[in-house]
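Posting this for the archive.
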Amino acid sequence: MANKKIPVIVVAGFLGSGKTTLLNHLLRNTRGARIGVIVNDFGSVNIDSMMVAGQVDSMVSLSNGCLCCAVDVSDMDAMLDKLAHRSSDLDVIVVEASGLAEPRNMIRLVTGSANEYITYGGLVLVVDAAEFDDACARHPELEQHVALADLLLLNKTDRIDADAHDELLGRLCALNRRAAVVSTEHSRMDPGLLFDIPDRPEPQPGEQFTLDSLLYDEHEGEHTHLHDGYDAVTFTSAKPLHPRLFVDFLEAQPAGVFRIKGYVHVAAGLRSRAYLVHTVGDYIRFEPARKGEAPATTELVVIGADLDADSVRERLEGCVPVEPVSADAMYAVHRFTPR
């Protein structure tokens, strides 16, 4: 997409929940993607020291474009400017928050950034299945963190039995009825749920090996053992959608949806307009499509966990107007377009 912005994903969770394990998993198992990373504890990121140049509080560029910065959250905007700029070729930026960080503040720092090359990619909260109850007893605010999440990673499920898992899963869903929930061991999840992975060619003989290639050789076959941990539902419509009904759908998405992307044509009086739409959790953004950029029809992809595909399509089909649409219905979309 011509209007591509780099998603910035915030990874949070209490101490020991598995945030760094998730980050290392993404670095090792996302072939072809260029990942930028902002971490609080640089030393915990498991990258061979021979591949890394630089030191804490500096920007590090690796052969495949991975960038790691160790910063305080107060420096977030400055670090985002270093990672995301006109010539940046990153596919995603992952911010690993401290185990004691306040997720709401991390979200505010990302969504409030003036950097025009990024977009909010969601809050991923890693939950320690074995320790969550005890942690909440000591820190009740952790339940509020669950309610904020766009994706809940119920980690370390190998340390509890099936009944305890189901009980905890129900508790998390009660605290956050909207977020997608993925149960994992060792924070192993499919990166495709979080961001788009480009199809880049493998290096040819004589070309420089990427960090990803080196890590893959070290753990040969690990990539092929990943299983899709998400659903992707496609929706197309030759008719423009009703802007207000479509925004209503985005503001009350089906349970389990993590992100929605694509082009949408919306009716506005006697005309229709095309937009590039991007959502993650409650975050919604419409960008007017440039001339010739959008396909002739609405083409959307709804991504999440345990989705009811028929229900998702039925709700989207309900956004197709059966009567003429007033031009003032566009105000619903204007609330989410760049100023």
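The first helix runs from residue 19 to 29. The longest strand covers residues 257-268.
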